[in-house]
Structure formats: C-alpha cells, structure tokens
Amino acid sequence: MKGIILGGSLSTLLSFLFTPMLIRALARKGIGQMIRDDGPQTHHVKSGTPTMGGIVLILSSFIAYFVSHLVTGVGVSVSALLVLGLMAGLGFVGLLDDWLKISKKQSLGLRAKQKLIGQAIMAIGFGFAGLHFKDTYGLTPISTHLSTVRETGIALGLVLVLIWIVFLVLGTSNGVNLTDGLDGLASGAAILAFLAFIMIGVWEFKQSCALALVPQCYEVRDPLDMAVLAACLAGACAGFLWWNASPARIFMGDVGSLALGGAVSGMAIVLRTEMLLALLGGLFVIITLSVIIQTGYFKLSGGKRVFKMAPLQHHFELMGWGEVTIVIRFWIIAGLSVAAGLGLFYGQWVVSQ
Questions:
Q1: What's the domain count of the chain?
Q2: Is 180 helix (H, G, I), strand (E, B) or coil?
Q3: Within its chain, how far is the Cα of 17 from the centroid?
Q4: Cα separation, 311 vs 330, whole angstroms
C-alpha cells in the first residue's frame, strides 16, 4: 500500500513540475498544435498551443513507478513492465504522428493505415510476451481465457487471444485519441479509469488464491503491483490536468492519448477484466461509437449525418454548449460508467460467496 501512495504522489508532483518546463521548451521552438479547418471555429484560437504533453505523462509515471519500488524495496513485476512497454510503444507511434503534423504544418500526420499497423505491432508484442513469464504458481501476465469481471472458462487459444488483444488495444487507444478533443476531457476521464484499476488491483490481491483460500478467489499474477502502476498513471494525469484544463496551456497529443489508451487496455487485460473495460472506459466507448455511427450512416444514406459533427463532444459544441460544460458533463458520464463497472465487479464476488 505504501507503493500506491508513494507512486501516486510522486507522479502527480513530477507531472505538475515537468509540464510547465515542457511548455516553455516547446514554446521556444515554436512547436504547437495544428487545428482542423473543418472543426468548430472556436478551436482556431487554440492553434499554436504546445502539444506532445503526453511525453510528461509517460516520463512521470515511469519515474514514479521505479522510484516507489526502489524506496519500498519491492521488486518490479513482469505484468507492470509489459504494460509500461505497451504504453511506451504506442506513445512512440503517437510521437511520430505528432511530429509529422508539426513538421508538415498541418493537422494530418501518419496515414490511418500506418498508425493502425504500428498500434497492432505493439499490441501483438505485448500479447505474445504476456503469455510467457510464469510465476511460482504457474500464472502468466496474460491468460488464454476470456475474462469478463474475472477469468472465465472460455479458452481462446494463442491466435484468438492475440486477435482479441489487438482489438482491445486498438479500440481503447483510438477511443482515448478521439476523446482528446476538448481541454482536459481525456485526461480527466483517464484518471477515473485508473482509480478504478487501483481498487480492482487491491481487491484482487486481498482475495488472491495465493493468499486467501476463499470461494471464487482471483488467479491474477501481479494485482497489487498493477494497483501501484495505476496510481502512478492517475497521478501523472492529475498533475498534467492542472495545465491541460480549459484554457489548456498544453495538449497531450497523440503521444499521450495513444499511450494512455494502451495503459488502460493493458491493465484490463492483465487484471482479467477485459469485458469490464466497456464500462470502465465507458466514455471512450460512447465517443468511439459516435464516430462509427456517423461514418456508417453517412455512407449508407448518401451523405446524411446523425450528429452535427463527430466525435460526439463536437456535436454539442456546435449546439452551443460551452467547452467547460461539455467536459464536466462528460466527466460525470465517465464517473457513472466507472461506478457501474466497479459495482458489477464487486457484485459478482458478493453473489459468488
């Protein structure tokens, strides 16, 4: 538990201190966000705002995680290293995308296919490595069985597991990327998801089959260390949110949104709560669905639209809602979704006793 408190506190402080340093460094070099011409007109005032703030999120969470283990004397876990690796890999893909946008002075970076291929490669590497590294109980970071609120008896096999992991990682990382359209929206929603993973990790550790011989105990490799990592990520997002809240002084960019999405999906996979991800990341799912619905209906109807603009947050902007109002209301939706997910998680355990 000391690791959770130390990691979360340190990452918050580091992120809070590093972010203005990065803002000044990017401003001196004239590195700023390019704004879409077809987006809400109110966004054009944000053109030139420093971007790639996700570098701070990655750096702060990495440093805090390793320092907390150094101080507590607890060894790092393979599960956490894999999630950190996935986060860094997706962050690298996002960094390439951000840099191309800046260097080309336009809002388009990597082609969609290039970005998806890069994300898929990172997801496959994460999934394949996670099926190895057994502990003394024979548990690997990633299971070959499908999980809902816990691992089920449905065996998928190697190929299906990797396909499933690619789907989860791509869906979540791109979902966070789509959500990152208003100041503080994605970072605030990510904090709520990581807080949920702290509670899930601690609970699974206390009810672990290795510690407690209780009905329906959890067979998860490193649940407590995942709670430590979740605290580091939540803290990094909190420190960053201070500067990212409206009016944002810096954007996280694709390097941040893809990395956070990878961390969220990676935690759901190693904590055996894959299907629960639909609720824990409920806001990301809703916003992604709005894009799918808009695109699908546009093609099928010959040019008609369901929303004024997708992703969904821009629809409400064009309806006249203020940016802060949208962000706060969407945070409420994210919080209710996370609460529902935690309710299902704990409810299943109570019913099984």
A1: 1
A2: coil
A3: 22
A4: 13
